[in-house]
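Please predict the structure of the following assembly.
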Amino acid sequence: MAEDRVTQAVAVARELLEADGPDAVSMRAIADRMGMRAPSLYKHVPDKATLEVHLIAAALAELGQALRTDRGDLTSLAGAYRAWATAHPHLYTLATAQPLPRDRLPEGLEDEAAAPLLAACGGDQDRARAAWAGAHGLVSLELADRFPPDADLDAAWGAFVAAFSG
Amino acid sequence: MAEDRVTQAVAVARELLEADGPDAVSMRAIADRMGMRAPSLYKHVPDKATLEVHLIAAALAELGQALRTDRGDLTSLAGAYRAWATAHPHLYTLATAQPLPRDRLPEGLEDEAAAPLLAACGGDQDRARAAWAGAHGLVSLELADRFPPDADLDAAWGAFVAAFSG
DNA sequence: GTCTATACCCGGATAGAC
DNA sequence: GTCTATCCGGGTATAGAC
């Protein structure tokens, strides 16, 4: 089908992103790995933004799936969130450090990713957003290597979960 | 003194950063605003990284100052944190989205910025880091315009403070 | 559907004249 | 201490031949 090459381009873009970060994801590099020159890639993919939308959608879907797989309590949700994010740091950052392209994302994807945490918060949206922000803050500071060198991240996560459990 | 031009370059870099974001901060643009060409700027400043270190130091100092000015309880600290960050979004992001250049920062600066929150957490480092992460998560998601359009951020901050107060 | 060539940007930083 | 000229690199994307 016509989308085969798009799928392949997204897969290659993801490999580059996960391996070497956002600066490594260029249309030239993607094309190279597909065995063609950059201009040829434009016969299959309209632009780079389209590839990023696909990557963001994949990130949301996989993170949501990871959260739906576990027990559903805040402790295990926090663990699943941190585990997925640290396993896919650049993908996580891509999906959280900029506005979502909501009009180009599959309908309901954002809500599905948020559902497990919302459920764990008894349907309280504000509390769920605060808890999400807490997990996101911990993850993003960890990914950015921004905590002091001596910080005990496991203990910080424990304190976070304790605050939202009490 | 010899540092005058460095100070001026830092000030100009900050103006550019705060006005138009990180992509607007180039050695060419800084030099232009100082009435010279980029190569001349290198007679006063060794490289761009040096300017960024100064900006990060300024951000930490000012944010710390903002936190030291208020009542010291978690509610007012959260308000001060959010207020400073949203007033200086690009500076805040510069100072939090990458590892700190600790070896080039004034001694004690990081600890001074963290002190008010640590005090509000009764000296519990892990709890203080979790609380910091919560505030950072809320701020960074707000600055990135990453919350759903209908999200009530004030309420989310309220839920965050409530979780860490209870 | 691929290619080469190119257009158009941008960046940090250096050499060497004055 | 300023300049011009330049080096190096990068990027997205298009035109037009084949």
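The radius of gyration of chain A is 18 Å. Chain A has two domains: 1-46, 56-165.
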